[in-house]
Automatic annotation (TrEMBL):
Protein name: Zona pellucida sperm-binding protein 3
Gene Ontology cellular-component terms listed: egg coat; plasma membrane
Transmembrane segments: 428-451
Matching PANTHER family: ZONA PELLUCIDA SPERM-BINDING PROTEIN 3 (PTHR11576)
Compartments reported by the entry: Secreted, Extracellular space, Extracellular matrix; Zona pellucida; Cell membrane
Gene: LOC102374911
Length: 471
């Protein structure tokens, strides 16, 4: 029976002439053949045969997809993980993967591609931020914590922690395809039709130059300058219609805090702990400056904020009104005062009802005809007949330092310095006492030596009685 079975096997191999055959009784194998789970491309053929023999040289020639891919977007990172995490053909469970120190769970599971996708904000899931002279680096980790599958007493894979990083430039825009944030950290500019450029910039304390850093201590004054580049347009006057602070670049996100509201009322100035105000007079009609004290959200531990302002322009010769104004609150007189125009245009800042004809601050007024703006520029075929006279501009991220924490560190440092100084004084006092004692001892010994020497000389000359010389 054994001989007959072996003969049938040989005949079968000869008929197939090229199939993969081996002697089931021969336990020696060539080093060039290894076992490997079937790939996704061979899923149809591997269903009938759970084993596959693949030449090792072929495996090295086939590029394997990366097990973890990261996309750094404007306000979030997207991490895609292949379930064959270790490249051994064994798919891990999606539930065993988490992101960050707070173990955020995946948002999508692709059964066809066997991938798991995580999406989280740059400051979510316990990520950390590092600031370098050129970059903002957000760090988190992909965690794999295996749980028992069939047998609750054993595990077949090891846990793993994969570091994840997203790098963003602090000074320039990024033009690569891998990372393309749509904001510039300290200077954000939006171009509208007909080449109107709205911008927000952080300025130094005397407004002479752009501020080189975006870091502020709590309560420190933030000098913000809004500008519009008019180029070929007639003279324009710029207004800050509204400004809202959020934790993300999305102005509609929560929590939020209104700095300017009601079509130009700097409502942040009403707080008792701030001196926020518009700067009057303007340096130019196309520029508006405001000062606001730095703050952070009390119910959130994150220390980055974004400020989104809605900027708009009117012809410079148009008088300011309820919808186009720049009003600051003066606590001394308990009044609202405009940068320009009559004081009555700020009266609605008290009630918050500054709309005209039912207009809301969230509804954009109509676009203006080009002829109201253009001067000495001929119309071109195909040009739009309307000009966008307003735009949203995002300033950020702004890094807010905890003044209380730094005060505690400074107080602790001062205590340590005082303690060290006190210990130094005590040690110095001890050294002075010891030095004084040594000096005094030397003086006494010197006096005794001088006295003995003098007495000896007197004895030799016979000037002293012999009885004294023998003492």
């Amino acid at each position: 029976m054994v001989v007959s079975g072996c003969l049938e096997l040989v005949v079968l191999c000869w008929v197939l002439s090229g199939g993969v055959c081996y002697n089931p009784w021969d336990f020696s194998r060539s080093d060039s053949a290894i076992w490997r789970p079937p790939s996704r491309a061979d899923a149809s053929s591997s269903q009938s045969s759970p084993w596959a023999w693949v030449d090792a040289s072929q495996i090295r020639a086939v590029p394997l997809p990366p097990p973890v891919m990261v996309q750094c977007k404007e306000a979030q990172m997207v991490v895609t993980v292949h379930r064959d995490l270790f490249g051994i053909g064994r798919l891990i469970k999606a539930a065993d993967l988490s992101l960050g120190s707070v173990a955020c769970q995946y948002v999508a599971l692709n059964e066809v591609e066997n991938t798991v996708t995580f999406a989280a904000g740059l400051q979510d899931c316990g990520s950390s931020l590092q600031m370098t002279p050129d970059s903002l680096i957000y760090r988190t980790s992909l965690n794999y914590t295996p749980t028992p599958a069939g047998n609750a007493a054993i595990l077949r894979t090891n846990p793993a922690v994969i570091p994840i990083e997203c790098h963003y430039p602090r000074k320039k825009n990024v033009s690569s395809k891998a990372v393309r944030p749509t904001w510039s950290p300290f200077h954000s500019t939006v171009s509208a039709e007909e080449r109107l450029h709205f911008s927000l910039r952080l300025m130094n304390d005397d407004w002479s130059a752009e501020r080189p850093s975006n870091g502020f201590h709590l309560g420190e004054a933030m000098h913000i300058q809004a500008e519009v580049t008019t180029e070929n347009h007639m003279a324009l006057r710029l207004f800050v219609d509204s400004c809202v602070a959020t934790l993300t670049p999305d102005k509609n996100s929560s929590p939020s805090y209104a700095i300017v509201d009601f079509n130009g009322c700097l409502v942040d100035g009403r707080s008792d702990d701030t001196t926020s105000a518009f700067i009057s007079p303007r340096p130019r009609q196309d520029t508006l400056q405001l000062v606001s004290d730095a703050f952070k959200f009390a119910a959130d531990a994150r220390n980055l904020i974004y400020i989104t302002c809605h900027l708009k322009v009117t012809p410079a010769d148009q008088a300011p009104d309820l919808l186009n104004k720049a009003c600051s609150f003066h606590k001394a007189g308990n009044i609202w005062s405009p940068v320009e125009g009559t004081r009555d245009i700020c009266s609605c800042c008290k009630t918050g009802n500054c709309g005209l004809l039912g207009w809301s601050r969230r509804v954009h007024p109509p676009r203006w005809p080009v002829r109201h703006f253009r001067r000495d520029v001929a119309s071109k075929p195909g040009n739009s007949s309307m000009v966008e006279a307003e735009s949203d501009v995002v300033l950020g991220p702004l890094y807010i330092l905890d003044e209380f924490q730094e005060s505690r560190d400074l107080f602790k440092y001062q205590i340590e310095v005082e303690k060290a100084a006190k210990n130094g004084i005590e040690e110095m006092s001890g050294l002075i006492v010891v030095a004084a004692a040594i000096i005094l001892a030397f003086i006494i010994l010197g006096l005794i030596f001088i006295y003995k020497r003098t007495q000896l000389i007197q004895c030799q000359r016979g000037r002293v009685p012999f009885t004294l010389c023998t003492m």
